[in-house]
Specification:
Number of strands: 10
Oligomer: single chain
CATH topology: Protocatechuate 4,5-dioxygenase, Chain B
Radius of gyration: 17 Å
Strand content: 15-25%
Helix content: 25-40%
Number of helices: 12
Shape: globular
CATH class: Alpha Beta
Order of helices and strands: EHEEHHEHEHHEHHHHHHEEEE
CATH superfamily: LigB-like
Length: about 260
């Protein structure tokens, strides 16, 4: 497999329906990736106090969306779970890890996986983020998952390269690129591809536009898990585009 881990920006759930560069990128990614043994999807939409993993054999699709077209609610994505992989991950993450037998897959997972693997034939395990804990904690969480990444399990972080929804809601669809967003995404790409892990973990202090781009951390925390899971520490920005000039849909591959 070309990548041990990925970070993708899921943006609005309308990603599944709208004709956008990010949607086309995700659709093109499936053939490039092939079919991994399983996916551990680290989702910004499952906050918890300790790491939590889904152990469902057939995880339900969670419609954690509001005010969207009926097509999104009717969308079926019956991907199987991978309880055995979840058990391996739980052992690697430690005894505090919570094993959730009923957790389904939220829109941060099904929106991107339905574009990458539309046949719903890649087993998936959801992994929570801990918004009260920092980037370094999530990076170390990813490092613990490296044995699975080396064994053909894809660690997929799904969040957002930038996530300022208050500003996003007030902007027209085709707004020009926001200067703070551009400064942040340029810095993130440069630091990631140069392997400046220390700067990335200290992004709140190091990155221009960090506070504007991420008023809260949870949508960037999956990035750090994916970064930590890469055995060789190599990284590449695979995609860059903007929704309304402010919501960055960037994606990264790690090896």
């Amino acid at each position: 497999m070309e990548f041990a881990s990925l970070f993708v920006s899921h943006g609005s759930p309308m990603l599944v329906l709208e004709d956008t560069p990010a949607r086309h990128f995700l659709q093109s990614l499936g053939p490039r990736l092939g079919k991994p043994k399983a996916v551990i999807a680290v989702t910004a939409h499952w906050p918890s106090l300790v790491p939590a993993l889904s152990f469902a054999a057939w995880p339900d699709k969670i419609n954690d969306i509001y005010g969207f077209p009926p097509e999104l609610f009717r969308l079926s994505y019956p991907a199987p779970g991978a309880p055995a992989v979840a058990a391996q991950a739980a052992d690697l993450l430690g005894p505090a890890t919570r094993r959730d037998p009923g957790r389904g897959i939220d829109h941060g997972i099904w929106s991107v996986m339905s574009l990458i693997w539309p046949e719903a034939d890649v087993p998936v395990v959801a992994l929570s983020v801990m918004p009260d804990l920092d980037a370094r904690y999530h990076y170390l969480l990813g490092k613990r998952l490296r044995p699975l990444a080396e064994d053909g399990v894809l660690i997929l972080g799904t969040g957002a390269a930038t996530h300022n929804l208050m500003e996003y809601r007030d902007r027209p669809d085709h707004a020009a690129a926001d200067a703070a967003t551009t400064a942040f995404t340029d810095w993130l790409a440069e630091a990631t591809e140069a392997g400046r892990t220390g700067d990335l973990l200290d992004y709140r202090e190091q990155a221009p536009g960090a506070e504007f781009s991420h008023p809260t951390d949870e949508h960037l925390l999956p990035f750090f898990v994916a970064l930590g899971a890469a055995p060789e520490g190599r990284a590449k920005r695979l995609h860059h585009s903007l929704d309304s000039g402010i919501l960055a849909m960037d994606a990264y591959g790690f090896a």
